[in-house]
Amino acid sequence: MTENFIIVENVNERELESILMDLANLYADTEFVNGIQFYRKKDKYDSFLVLFSNQPDFERFNYFINYIKYPAEHEKFSPLIRGFYRTTDIKQKSEFNIGEWIMVYVSKNDKEYDNVNLVNEKNENYLYDFGGKVKKLKSIEEMFKLISFDKNNYYHILDIIPSKSIEEKKPLIGQKTKDIFAIIISLVFTIGGFIAYEDSKDIAIPTMIFFGLGFLVLLWKFLNPQKFEEMKNRKNKNVG
Questions:
Q1: For helices 58-69 and 13-26, what crossing angle results, to 10°?
Q2: Alpha-carbon torsion (227, 47, 55, 175), positive or negative
């Protein structure tokens, strides 16, 4: 057992298949979702194994765990999910990177919807924030327990690949052009506000604030399209 994997339980097969397809489409511009291997345990109807033909990096692996926990448009979906990632595959140097495996899950007390929890083989618990922070927790919510598997005990259901074709992605080029145009317009009006500040403060100040904030938001969205979509999906989940 050398590949990184995810165990999902307490779910419906068709619903999980749909969620994995949505996940593949969301990350279609990466190689990691090209061939998500979907298995069901032979002696259970609600226990599943997820493997990857193209091993995701540790950051994407954590995103995938979070997405399966909080899938868009699946309000009553309540999985028991554990991911296991080999420490030798983690490129960045981190305090939590001890032993052979890291267990990844989402805390039952989570209220932020943009993180996962990590447990190493020394039972040290960490909060992995998608904002780029990793915090060691004082309390132990989960003990490390490696769930081993044997493919012979699973039915191979199917391999999932993104349904978005190159032709379907072409409109994104037009959308990027629109985003660049909106960024430029916001920047022009922001600069205009600075120029007009001395002559007309009443107009210049709200112009700088409105278009300045718009410029920052649009620029961040343009530079981080996947994270923007993830935040939008989590917001929709929270509203639901």
A1: 140
A2: negative
Rg (CA), the chain: 22
How far apart are the two ends of the chain, measured CA to CA in Å?
38
d(CA 168, CA 180): 20
At 91, the amino acid letter reads: K
The single residue listed with the structure tokens 């309540």 is 78
The two tokens of residue 105 are 């899950």
pLDDT tens digits for 66-106? Answer: 999 999 888 889 999 999 999 999 998 899 999 999 999 99
Whole-angstrom distance, CA of residue 14 vs CA of residue 36 = 15
Q: What is the pLDDT of residues 177-234, one digit of tens each?
A: 778 878 888 888 888 778 877 778 777 788 778 887 877 887 877 777 666 666 655 5
What is the residue extent of each domain of the chain?
5-160, 170-239
Cβ neighbours of residue 95 closer than 8 Å, sequence gap 6 or more: 126, 134, 136
**Neighbouring C-beta atoms of residue 237, cutoff 10 Å:** 17
Distances (CA, A) of 161 to 28, 81, 108, 135: 8, 21, 30, 34
